[in-house]
Amino acid sequence: MSLLCFPVLAGASSDREKARALTVGCLGCHGTSGEGQGTLPPLKTLDRETFIQRFQAYTLEDKTGSVMHRIARGYTAQEIRLMADFLATGSLP
Amino acid sequence: MRVSRRNFMKWAPGMAAIGVLRSGPLYATRGIPRIVVAGGGFAGLNFAHALKQLAPAADIIVIEQNPRYVRCPGSNQVIAGFKPMESLTHQPALGLVRQGIRFLQGRITGMDADQRILHLEDGSRVGFDRLIAAPGIDFFWDKIEGYGKSQSLKVPHAWQAGPQTQLLHDQLAALPEGGLFMMTVPANPYRCPPGPYERASLIAARLQRVNPRAKILILDAKTKFSKEKGFKAAWTSLYPGMIEWISFETEGEIDHVDVESRTVTTAFNRYRADVLNVIPPQKAGKLAETLGLTDETGWCPVDPVTFTSLKIPHVHVIGDATRYGAVPKSAFAAQTEARACALVIALSILETPPPEPRLINHCYSLVSPERAISVTGVYGVKKGALPEALSVMESSPESDQHLEFAQAMDWYELLIRSTFEAP
Q1: Taking Cα atoms as reference points, which of B62, B41, B132, B37 lies closest to residue B419?
Q2: φ, ψ dihedrals at B27, nearest 5°
Q3: Chain B closest CA to A88's CA: distance in Å?
Q4: What is the CATH number of the domain that holds A33?
Q5: How much of chain B exceeds pLDDT 90, in percent?
Q6: According to the model, what pLDDT value does residue B20 have?
Q7: Within-domain flag for A93
Q8: How many distinct structural domains can be found in chain A?
Q9: Model-level pTM?
Q10: Contact assignment for B380 to A74 by CB distance below 8 Å
Q11: Which of A62, B111, B166, B229 is deepest in the core (most CB within 10 A)?
Q12: Contact residues, B window 12-71, toward A, CB-based 8 Å cutoff
């Protein structure tokens, strides 16, 4: 069977699939293609630097006002970078 | 790259303990194994759509006995009369077929695990290389004296949406002036931990408009509950004096229920309601028992990384039916599990070992028809242990409940879209 059957997973590498597994949880609120919905912003159009900057700010800020303030605490700095790299490649379907 | 028949199942954890019965695909088309999904709810449907998204060539069949799915999320709004019943009803086949996923309406009555064949009630058989079971929940009908399945036709549980939702709605609409609505809530684990308190909140919002002297009493088997601070603050400010919550810690457990007089007798007291809602203790859906996937708890034990059943090889279990560590039983968690499991299956076809899943449960509860609060949990799997909470937090008291309501409506929209319409 050719990888053509699995275009999304073409070039699967352990880092990439690890990152994909990390972003699985994001899709419930940001859409299965990262497209967003109304008050829930898209992930697709976030560039790598902005993603890292915002995500890390959420972990550092001493408040829990937004949903992302709570979510960010479940990821390490390394995991945040992995996700940013992954999203920057446009790998969400 | 080719999928070797010999290697296809090799990595699957749990197999070592059980012993590999047959290693290669038995029902492959052009080398692509057949994936069968048993159960067309939030877990099963999101799995099918997510796998199709990752692996468009995958051969996927969803088997579900009901052509129409009536969803639980949103059903408290219907019970309280803020939304019509039709708003909960979906036809999963439409979205599936549009994506090239086969939908088979039928009831599964048994399985030949060795040959990987499901037996359906109409006598037909469906072979699978991997089975994804998403059986949802069922009730223990023998744990509350006086409250069995037939009694639920008089005193509804309304914890599976459908006729039960309508029944409770109709009974509440006929609540006598100044009457008492009473709800009993089971111990953990059960489907949708904050659900009972959202139900009480929305019913209070309705009664405040049409029957302001009415009262709500919650008899709870727990000593604390999900989003407790947020709910209690909302009850005090929005519905002062209307909702009373009593824990069994002070009240003693339910001794028995009499549905004719709508009376609940606890160890220390007796309460008579005008409308009674008994939410019984729960276990995995009947299909899980039929397939032999449950353990002594009534739920399905699974491998933390691959969702592989620890009972039956070549079967994965997702959604409310699983015994899955700290992850709560919610539609949102189910769709995250479904997507994580779809990645596992897609990678297994490519013989790539699956990464450890990271799951999110993000769950809104309406405290009124215009306000919401939420709980957010991130769950991780480490060193092969069941998922642990890495971060679980609820809305802070100063959070904007109107904004959270707007987010909740968008969140519903996405959940419905990914489940019933397509990616």
Answers
A1: B41
A2: -125, 30
A3: 18
A4: 1.10.760.10
A5: 86
A6: 34
A7: no
A8: 1
A9: 0.93
A10: yes
A11: B111
A12: 30-32, 49-50, 53-58
